[in-house]
Amino acid sequence: MGMVDAARVLSRPRAPTAGRVKDRRSARLVHYAMLCPTLVLLLAFLVLPAIYVGWLSFNTSTYGQDSTFVGLANYAQLFADRIFWRAFWNTFFVVNGIVYVELLLALGLALLLSGPVPGKAIIIAVVLAPYAITESSGIVMWRYMFEPDIGLVSHILGGLGLGQLDWSTNPVETLLLASTIAIWHHLPFTFLILYAALTTVPRDVLEASEIDGATRWQQFRLITLRLIMPAVLIAVLFRYIFAIRTFAEVWLLTEGGPARLSEVLAIYLYREMFKYHQFGMASATGCFMLVMSLVIAWPYLRRMYCEVMRSA
Amino acid sequence: MQGRRGILKALVAAVAAAVAGPFAATRAYAADRLTVIGHAVHKAAATTGAGGDVTAPWRAKQGVEVEWLTFGVEAANERAFKEASLAEGSADIVFILDRYTGPQFAGLFEDLRAWQANDPIPDFAEIPAGMLAAHTFGGKLTAIPFRHATHGLHYNTEFFAEKGVTEPPKTVVEAVALAEKLTFKRADGVQVYGLVMNFDDPATPIDWIRAFGGDFITADYKVVIDQPAAMRGVTALVDLYKKGVLPKNSMNLKTEDVTTFMQQGRAAMTNNPFNRYINYNDPKASKYPGKIAVVALPLGVDGKATPAKTSVWAMAIPRNGRNKERAWSFVKLLSQPDSTIAETLNGNGPVRPSAYEDAKVKALIPYAAAEKQALASARLVVPGFPNSAKAMDIFIEELGNAMLGTKDPQTAMSDVKKRVQPLLPA
Amino acid sequence: MRKRSPSLQVLRWALIALAMAWSAIPILLVVLSSFKEASQIFEVPFTLIFRPTLENYRTLWTARPEFFRALGSSAIVTLGAVLTAICASTLAGYVYARYRNRLLSGTAFGMLAARMLPPIIITVPLFPILNVLRMNDTHLLLVLLYAAFYVSLGTWIMRSFVAQLPIELEEAAAVDGAGLIAILGRVVLPLVVPGIITVAIFVVVFAWNEYVFALIFTTRDAKTAPVVIGEMLGTVEGVQWGVIFAAATVQLLPVVTLVIALQRYLVSGLTAGAVKQ
Q: Do residue B284 and residue C83 have CB atoms under 8 angstroms apart?
């Protein structure tokens, strides 16, 4: 079966059966076996340890001591901690800011680069570069660029009369800079998913609609967006998953300071785990973050479920 | 497609071989090895430099190799505790820094008093009591001190000369006034700050608080940070910050940032470990090589020496180690007086004050006398107790509030007392 | 093809240039700084014109040779993780795309939920267990771990790519007598190459730069490059930024080269066929 045959099959007038499963087909044993590598990896390295972590959140535990069951004490301590709630709200705003701004930028960029563009290989390589560089080096450079008074960008801002970004003392501006760095670092991730999805939009469908007189905006809204929606949902979902863990961007800027005002949940967890060695508390924080991710991502999960079920 | 398949197959085979190889020869305990977990400086101190390889004769005599597993500072301590917590560890010796240990971990390590009694380290009494106390919990000695890093006052002699100051400040009051005087704009427009400090470690502000006669937590676990003496120090710092003598982004400066400040001539003074002298004056990295001198911290308001902050790396023997006799023999080796001198020549901060008297050391290290002087009155940041890390975080947080102006200093420090009090041992 | 107005073209190129500048500038700074003398890297004011030196690279070569050995480890681990993740994801993605029942949906969404716990906390139970299994400090462990981290995303991406393909293709092949393996290998695989490349790029970038798990689970044999860079940052005697930036630059090159090489495969197999026709 070669390319020519595939093209011939595809050039037949297409009933909307792309992806449809014949009702008679049901998964055989061999299909479940094909799932095994993935499921075994996930079970062994993620699910089973996660269950242990869930149990650990109801205990006190540190190096060299047996865990002691304490019931909900860890959660009580967590929810009574003013700093925890500040970290929560900081994380909440940072995460939502990152996900949506990045989505828009990535979509725009993917659209810009879809279709023939000279030198695309180099352009895409440059666009992907921030994702490829070691995180700490990139963040250190951003930090230096924004160093008060002497940094490159600070210099320019000052020269333009825009004042300085007071990220070292003002937590809002710290988180703004951290979010910007996070977007800079991860934009290639979202971009890549959307770009790859855009390549699957069949050109003949777009051309047909053009002949029918559709404007570019209508093309995008009614055809392209609908076709790449599954990819958009995946991109948003995973960006949420990664964004809630934002750590290095804030840590390398201010370590969550000053006065723990710019702290995010990942830093709170880090402190409990590596500074205070309280594994029970760290587990409780981790479990909270899991629940938080589920709650925030719930609308997207539902939408994905509908998409998956719809194409059945 | 065929060519690609072939390449793919070859790749898979290569990877499988590479992956399976090391897996086959896994990290089982090796009887012919002594495994040490620590930081690169410890390995360097013991093996490379002007003092030579201290371990060579021992290795020859014992017929074993020494395997140094080195990590970053925090990672080394983490790994030490992780290995020591396993049912069966593979580390014979681990290096621990005082700020990461505590009485809650004492059970992980051997009580070295017994070992010292049986097979003593020569001239053991020379090791300062304070350093031993840093690793002693409930009477149990968990580790033998190996390396110290004590704070001194570094200052830029060129800036001093510019402002007509010939000598470093003698008292803390002088130092504060000098810091104000030395805050100015350089000829090329760059702002110079009279004093720069890193706030990732409570040690740097606590030096100054102690100079004013105050303290954070006393050795008998009393919080005194809200007392008048300590408040003098806190208000002095807050004032310096408000006046712009301390950089505006002080609160998120780390040690490396302070190094950069000094190297780039953006600050006139700092209190940091003595051995930073080498970095500040490094001709490759610094714009002021040879111009930055270091002395002991200025005298306190009571005219006595200010207890400089010191941190102590020490060697512990995990209880789950498999050849503790050999481990102790190695610890003894590294702690001997002659080994200590060799290690100092290799760049280590010696725990034996007598090492500073050695002619070669004096020749190699210009600040030897000053460091010895500081060592005599040095003190840990906080005494060891299980929640010490949390207490330190609370102090830095409230100090940040005071400096930012969100709370007035007295309220901030009273809050510190309120929050830290329940964390102290009963 | 609709003709694009020249002003829109200009706007398009302006935006692309902006995107490239935004992406590239911090990285260029890192690369440039690796050729600067130590005293010039963070100097005030920032200088673009300087006398370049290879000092940092020389120091990296002589004083930190373990970095290059670590690059080798990184390469092994990355390659292994990519192959494992792609195989597992493609197989699973195919099943999820073509079949539907409650068990499958449950596991598919369970896969997503499993990824929501911050990974760092699972090192607490994993470290002792893996130590007992003698898997600490092995390449195999990192390969499996990294693959485990990306099979969720990989499966969902492959699922969406396979779902795009009309089922007629597979049915036609089945009618011609092809078995499951033949269908997968000769019909499905060539047409989902952009999906595979996407997953591959994610796993490569992740595995190549991953720090936390490499730090916790390797000691000496399997130490990867980011761990060595981390050690250089956590040094007691003063951080040598020039050497670190040199290391970061060296680490960046293979990934960028790979991305440039893989970029053309991101074009869908379907459209390639249509163009040929």
A: no
